[in-house]
From TrEMBL:
Name the UniProt record assigns to this protein: CubicO group peptidase (Beta-lactamase class C family)
Species assigned in the record: Actinophytocola oryzae
Coiled-coil zones: none
Lineage, top ranks: Bacteria, Bacillati, Actinomycetota, Actinomycetes, Pseudonocardiales
DUF7586 domain span: 347-430
Ranges of residues in domain Beta-lactamase-related: 13-315
């Protein structure tokens, strides 16, 4: 990056470390497939931490669990609307759906019953389940967002049951190894930072325990590095390799429940947090465990992302830091638009469909893009429009906005010529209210005319 950009980033990082009294603090910027900048302040074992120094990432672990669940969904081994009882019978919360657990809308208690799980050695699944009676249900399912660490402990067990292996083994095999994230582990492996609590009124430290959380581990167990989390940011932006289809990643990023209803700046999707900031839609997740704070955030539209990790229990604004880093990069070195390139091949039949269509008297425009994808939007101004991915010779499925999930279907006359488009019963024709098309309600036989 430019020297001015790097200086501004280092200045922001240094100010956070000094003012928040962080034992150590690391940060990075990614864009596309590249790590553009990394920075570090403070010390780990008497030296500057590096891109390979492990920190505990806390609840960022949840994003990995969510990916494992979505892989199961994509393979047809579960449906997000399945009640938990279908796969993990015999619980007091079996009526909750998998989607509700992923989006923290099941109404489950935020923490596991018993002692504070983040600082205590965790038991196994039967032990955790034995403590969870009907009292763990705090709110009506689906009523509102209520963050639940317990919910992701349950999802980790769901993955283990359906795969016949521990969630950690499944994670290593299906996600970490394919993405080359060899330094993301359940327990620390050298070089790694020690977790500290910083005294509120004196510059002294207290070491924090980092026990194995047992059945609660899926909520916050993992340790990782700048290098590995930079790859995870690329994943969240859509570069999912062979692990997930990009459409599934996009589905996970879509807001399901708003966290701050009055302001609507923060929401939760299917295992991913999402934010609205300065007109941008950002995605990522925060993490907090005794001795550690972490945050990852990326703008999928530009693939520019930032991360920050520290080994302090509280007081270090890693979320604000990562957002500020993102803003600095956008201000100093904004991402250029993707280079336009013409299509390398095109179906003449699809090309003939482009241009103006009418829903009643309202003009819409259909555009063609790579892979046979089409976009149908109002010709002018706002309104209902979506992108569509081909699902058959003459069908497409909506990917976003009003028509997400709906089928766009092309119809022909008996002689083979194009008749109309049918989109969720809305008929689109080449001319307004084409009398040759099956317009719902029929048409006045006298056609278009002036007022009598």
């Amino acid at each position: 990056m430019l020297q001015t950009t790097e200086f501004a980033l280092l200045r922001r990082l240094a100010a956070e470390q000094a003012e928040s009294r962080a034992p150590s603090l690391v940060a990075a910027v990614v864009r596309g497939g590249d790590v553009l900048w990394t920075g570090a302040r403070g010390e780990v074992d008497g030296a500057r931490p590096t891109d390979d120094t492990q920190y505990r990432i806390g609840s960022i672990t949840k994003t990995f669990i969510a990916v494992l669940v979505m892989r199961l969904r994509d393979e047809g081994l579960l449906d997000l609307n399945d009640e938990l009882d279908k796969h993990l019978p015999g619980t007091s919360f079996g009526h909750l759906t998998i989607a509700q657990l992923l989006s923290h809308t099941g109404g489950l208690t935020s923490e596991s019953p018993g002692v504070w799980w983040e600082r205590a050695v965790g038991g196994d699944w039967p032990e955790l389940l034995g403590h969870m009676d009907e009292n763990v249900l705090k709110l009506r399912a689906g009523a509102r967002f209520h963050y639940s660490n317990v919910g992701f402990g349950i999802l980790g067990q769901l993955v283990a049951e359906l795969r016949g292996n521990s969630w950690l083994d499944v994670l290593n095999t299906e996600v970490l190894a394919p993405l080359g994230m060899s330094r993301t582990t359940p327990m620390p492996e050298a070089p790694h930072a020690l977790g500290w609590a910083v005294h509120p009124y004196a510059d002294v430290l207290l070491p924090e325990p980092t026990p194995d959380a047992g059945a609660m581990a899926p909520a916050g167990q993992l340790w990782s590095t700048v290098t590995d989390l930079a790859r995870w940011l690329r994943f969240m932006a859509g570069d999912a390799g062979t692990v997930l289809h990009p459409d599934t990643v996009e589905e996970m990023r879509a807001p399901v429940a708003v966290e701050d209803a009055a302001a609507w700046t923060s929401a939760y999707g299917l295992g991913f947090q999402t934010w609205r900031d300065g007109g941008r839609r950002l995605v990522g997740h925060g993490g907090s465990m005794p001795g550690f704070l972490a945050n990852v955030v990326v703008d999928p539209a530009t693939t520019t992302g930032a991360l920050a990790l520290t080994n302090s229990t509280a007081g270090v604004g890693v979320s604000a830091l990562s957002l500020d880093i993102l803003k600095l990069v956008d201000d100093y070195e904004p991402a250029p638009p993707a280079e336009w390139r013409p299509l390398t091949s095109v179906s003449q039949d699809l090309l003939a469909l482009t241009g103006q269509w009418f829903w009643g008297p309202s003009p819409f425009v259909l555009r063609l893009s790579a892979g046979g994808w089409v976009e149908l939007r109002p010709a002018a101004g706002g309104g209902r429009g979506s992108r569509f991915r081909p699902t058959g010779e003459h069908t497409w499925v909506g990917l976003d906005n009003y028509y997400a999930g709906e089928t766009l279907r092309l119809h022909h006359h008996e002689d083979g010529t194009v008749s109309h488009l049918d989109l969720a019963t809305f008929i689109f024709t080449r001319t307004p209210y084409d009398p040759k098309a099956p317009i719902p309600g029929g048409l006045d036989g006298r056609g278009w005319r002036p007022i009598d």
